[in-house]
Fold:
Amino acid sequence: MSLFYLGQSMPIAPAKLCSHPGCNATATANGKCPAHEPKPTDALIKRERTKDKRPSAHKRGYDYRWNQARLAFLDEHPLCKHCQDKDMIVAATVVDHIIPHRGDQSRFWDQDNWQPLCKSCHDIKTATIDRKLTTALLPNGKAGGAVLK
Structure:
């Protein structure tokens, strides 16, 4: 079936050009030609690989019950512990497990293992201390012996 517009075929939209400066190639749906499409970065590729292996937050125990406990803990401890140690007053938004629980439910729910942190301090702590702890506690001993200071 063909469409007619006043007795003629409907006009076809002209092809769009690549938005890269100086490029006159035909663009795909994202506005760039195949030569100028953005390439995934190493960090993005690594994040996608990691994301596929890691269970969902809900499966790791971060569910409604956790959210209620987290909110109650933050009500009782409203300031970031790391910022307070530096004489700064910053609101805590994250309940951090001091020692990563790694699925251990008793450690997960142990409030003595919780500390209130701002997102910035939590991100730094997770990227440094938690990674060192994981390396130090590996059962195969290959990367063991990392010292925490």
Q: What stands out?
A: The helical segments are 42-53, 64-76, 81-85, 105-109, 119-136.
